[in-house]
Amino acid sequence: MGKVHIEIDGQKLEAEVGSMIIEVADKADIYIPRFCYHKKLSVAANCRMCMVDVANLPKAVPACATPVAEGMVIDTRSQKAINAQKAVMEFLLINHPLDCPVCDQGGECELQDLSVGYGDDVSRFTEGKRVVKDKDIGPLIATDMTRCIHCTRCVRFGQEIVGIREFGATGRGEHMEIGTYIEETVESEVSANIIDLCPVGALTAKPSQFKARAWELRQAPSIAAHDCLGSNIFVHHRRGEIIRVVPRENESINEVWLSDRDRFSYQGLTEGARLLNPRIKRNGEWEDCDWQTALNLVASEMKRIIGASNGNDFGILMGNNATTEESYLAQRMLRKAGSNNIDFRTRRRDYTGDGRGSVRSGMNFPMENLDTMDATLLIGADLRHEQPLTALRVRKSTGYGKAMAINPFDGEYNFRLSNELQPKSNMLAQEFACVLAAADALRPESLNAEAKEWLDGIEFNDEHKEIAQNLIDGEASCILMGVYVQEHPQAETINWLAETLASVTDSDWGYMTQGCNAAGNKIAGAVPCQSAAGGKSEQGKTAKEMLTEGLKGYMLVNCEPDVESIWAEQALQNLKDAEFVVALTSFADGRVPDYANVMLPIAGCYETSGTYINVEGKWQSFAAAVKAPGEARPGWKVLRVLANLLDLSGFEYESSLQVINELREKFDAVGDVRVARKVPPPMMVVNEQETNRECLGLYMVDPLVRRAGALQKTPKASTHPISISRVKTR
Amino acid sequence: MANEVCFRTLHLDTPWSIDAYESVGGYSSLKKIAAGELCYDTIIDELKLSALRGRGGAGFPTGLKWSFMPRNMPGQKYVVCNSDEGEPGTFKDRDILRYNPHQLIEGMIIAGYVMNATVGYNYMRGEFYEPFARMEAAIAEAKERNYLGDNILGMDFNFELHNHLGAGAYICGEETALIESIEGKKGQPRFKPPFPANYGVFGRPTNVNNTESYASVPAILQHGGQWFLKLGKPNNGGTKIFSVSGHVNNPGNFEINMGTPFKDLLELAGGVLGGKQLKAVIPGGSSSPVLPADIMMDLTMDYDSIGKAGSMLGSGAVMVLDENTCMVEVAAITAHFYYEESCGQCSPCREGTGWMSRVIHRILKGDGRAEDLDNLDRVAGNIMGRTICALGDAAAMPVQGFLKHFRHEFEYMIEHKRSMVKG
Amino acid sequence: MKQFKQFINSFLLIELLKGMKVTFANMFRKKITVQYPEEKTPQSPRFRGLHALRTYPNGEERCIACKLCEAVCPAAAITIEAGPREDDGTRRTTKYEIDLFKCIFCGFCEESCPVDSIVETRVFDYHFEERGLHIMTKDMLLEMGRIHEDQIAADREADAKYR
User: Fold this and answer.
1) Which of C155, C76, C98 lies closest to C121 in space, CA to CA?
2) Are chains C and B in touch, 3+ Cβ pairs below 8 Å?
3) Is the ipTM of this complex over 0.90?
């Protein structure tokens, strides 16, 4: 692309050929008023607010739709430009209700802000104003369509970014209305982004409706805790109460978007019954007590059980949104106390890969690259329900590239698949192997003898060949496995196949992980096979063993295995049968009180400082946004004091930063070591019963989301196949 | 002389049949092309020479427009005919479709040949049931004689023509909205650039012309550009169909030479109804500013002359208003039309048309205020030139026109709460 | 000389007579003392006394929970919590409290109110008997509004032409 030289408001600028005036101005920090223009959406040029004066043109032109040309001289503040902008502002205001005091957008409204600069103080409009009937579009988004200024950002978002056209404009002229055509709920898993897009108060967040004004809110940067992307967010809170969560721009992770799950999960903090004091169960009754008493009891019970069984009969299970610090302290404490039974993978069936592979789990290429893939092969990946924002990225790539999928289920995608294979769930590895065999046939020189032997006798058809060919042809291509694969009994085989196929076809590969911190938990060493930063450890019991075989003592850190794990029923029974269960939890509801002996209140999401390591290996630390209620304390503090009470040395941390720095040092010394698997794992035959899809539902993934009221009211909360009973909230 | 170009079959029995058309030399231009006597360059040259200007309203030179099409670009290209005749007062395309559909078909085939397009769409407004049937029949006839279809007249050239019935939206007469409508979307204009010549139907290069423009092409190629030019005035070549309506004794379509004095046209139309005085004329469809009688009587009917007088020839819909017409009422009707027909996409037009319509209706009801007129003029001025398509201008110009020439009638009505002419 | 003059003055009790002159002059003037609380001084319609929340004639509270008064209050005396009202979902306060110990009676809340809901009445004499009563709750404020509505409305009316 060449460059042109233009001048905006006397500032000489260099710009890419083909870019629009407004883009260049934005880069140079020259503000041009706009409503319909949004950098992530197509240009609609319908609000006409961004009119600027271009020298030698008779009329003011819209900056969002006028490409720059060599020598262009633009004035954004000339009389001609301002006249045009003022005229448009007047038109926009004539039918917009002037009810800013009752509007939730008041104080952060683009129309309100600009009307200060461009609006007149006297209205010359004396006719009646338009009124539009309100719509009910579900529990997440409140509408007040009379306020709509028809910028169509929401329509374009659905059409272009999500690929699901939930919104559209009906009617002509003044009768034009934005709506859902027929009355229905907006269902997409990223729908609430239209709240941010809407420049006026037509679309606002329902859960926080009327709760606070923009100027009362304090903003704390944080990291979303419900999928492995680690979306960047701002937590907006007021007087210690979280009012809402909004996206924080990060081009390499969440761009400017946020999934509904990350946005509205905060509700769980207030809607779930919070545990405010340490509690001990005495004679079947719960009693509040102080920290000292509770922790002493836990320490003595831990010592007793670990001592009696040589570490075999006590285990720690970490939850899906445990921070890296919590995991690191928990495993360090447990290992020092003499046991290796710690795991966070309560949904994994295949542990044969333990001790191999990389220190970190996840993707081996930056997420950003998904945007520009020529070919993407998805294996068992239900992106829209697991990591909604990755689905948007893959969709972007399908503008010119191809997306293919091998799924043992009906995946709902918001992009077109060029090839889709649907093997039975127990034949997923076999089907995938056919693709590798096809790739091997296309590029016979790249596989080693063992792999070739392994592939011997596997037949492939044209579709397999086409998929392999697409991966080979694509200049940038990748193989992406979903959470389902990691839960599959043949996870290791499929992982090996993906890695091998990637090397044959010159592709990137990676897998999505359950929860927000699988990579962090693994690096922290919260797995039975390795200690922190891939350090050596004797093999402890895996989550599966702990939950299905039963232990005498359990510690649950922000974990509800009776809901989250694959072996929920067995887990519940074993937890009830255990001698001693201590639960570090934020909530006093659910089934934890049924089986726990001690409940220790820990701070929930946004109430603790910590670090999440996302699926690409980005370390993202955050501070607490609000204070935890009652006696609840951050998990890392509880674990640190518990370690002191267990008389273990080296637990003198004073901040979570010290903890993470210690881990970081260890990790940097080792690096992300990969121990490649030379010998392919055996191809097992598994029965179909065992592999039936039962991934956690979109809004079931962790204790917090399960208690978020508005999310639980959405259709998505119930339609996703889940095998476990829903936890009642409140 | 009248009826020389688009209406040249009108004197025959069943003028819409292919035989009637062939008897006046129809399809001879196409045959010339097939025989290799006319090629791309000569056709463009003849069109440029003829000074044929777009008959839809904007008056853009057709030859120039055709030469913009990237004919050598690989891939599908389209030829689209705009028969969505929605402009109030215009009914010329309907009669071409009804009485001489073959001339349009031949024009479109030639356009397809020139632009290397193999598919054409004829977009007709929703109410054109009879013309639609005539066109369908005509296409079948043309196919039978191998004027349409594969390997036309033995050439290495295929052309398919489809009729498409709109749903009655005025905005779909705007070329980009028409394209959206053909694509099956909501009829809303696109922002230009890119122009349809680069990004049209389904994102492919597309040429959009008015029915009358296409229908003029075969005659031009048959008789030569010079002949056509001489029918009219320099820069305003050929004949033009004027749809005369309103207070005249003999309303109807008149195909006359460009540059004919308005007086003669009025005479053709039988003079003002009931022998009354002429008050004003809307010379080019409802979107053109009104002109008072004294100015109009001195004008000739062509683009330049009417443009100089401050109005436009537009689509050639001449609306004649006699002395008993209340101009406030006419303005109210016009404003209401644009209020109803604005597509609602861009703010100035969506909000402004409603505002203007309401204010004029309020004046009409007798609730007008002195400041309303300046406000109206200002609102119209604010819409002007600030919208994606020309509908905003089309809505603003007549209001400004009425205010310019007949402000006293508005003032009278505001003051006396009754019409100046009707009492 | 000066000292002499002073001596004469004090000898002749000139100063005293001057003072008595004032005393006698005032003795026969009209009294301005008011017998509070039986009598009260006149008040301006703009008097800024104790707060009240007004209601519409149909009983609907005016306040729409826009929180402008809370934002503008220089003493941070106003605390508002808001949310959709249970029965009809309209924007209403769930809590509206004014801390009279903090309030400086500047009248900004009244100025900022877009619906003339929070107003200051002519009531200025009040006392608290218990700790905690200095916080006027929403119910107290609404009750104030109901009791004094006629006076409040008359005052707004009188002042309307200057606003």
Assistant:
1) C155
2) no
3) yes
